[in-house]
Amino acid sequence: METNTIQFIKDVLKATDSPEVIDLSVDFIIENHGDHGVPIRIDGKRVYIPAKEYDTMSPIIRAGSAKIPVINALRAVTGCGLKEAKEAVEDMDNWH
């Protein structure tokens, strides 16, 4: 990423508290120079999980079975708490 682009992003992030602007900046950085993961929301925050884990967890959750192992896996991948992982698994709308 060019130095001017990096400085611009730093300046924008310093000047705003807007979650949307922060999310867009993070998305831009990840799309252009980061590890591509799948965004999900956990406890109101955007978290990226590796695509491989998403591809494994998503069909299991959609089928409505084996939620406990998926909750445990999500906790291991993200480091979130039990309550947050359970809520994220139960709310599939936040999974992309």
Structural write-up:
The radius of gyration is 15 Å and the shape is elongated. Helices cover 65% and strands 12% of the residues. The chain has helices at residues 3-15, 19-33, 51-63, 67-78, 82-90, and strands at residues 37-42, 45-50. Strands 1-2 form a two-stranded antiparallel sheet. The chain has 2 domains: 1-34; 37-96, no CATH class. With 96 residues, the protein is α+β, with helices and mostly antiparallel strands. It is built from 5 helices and 2 strands. The chain starts with a helix and ends in a 6-residue tail after the last helix. Helix 3 (51-63) packs antiparallel against helix 4 (67-78) and helix 4 crosses helix 5 (82-90).
Instruction: Decide which structural class fits the backbone.
Output: alpha+beta
- What is the string of SSEs from the N terminus onward? HHEEHHH
What ranges have pLDDT less than 50 throughout 5 or more consecutive residues?
none
Tell me the overall shape: elongated
Q: How much beta, percentage-wise?
A: 5-15%
Compute the number of strand runs.
Answer: 2
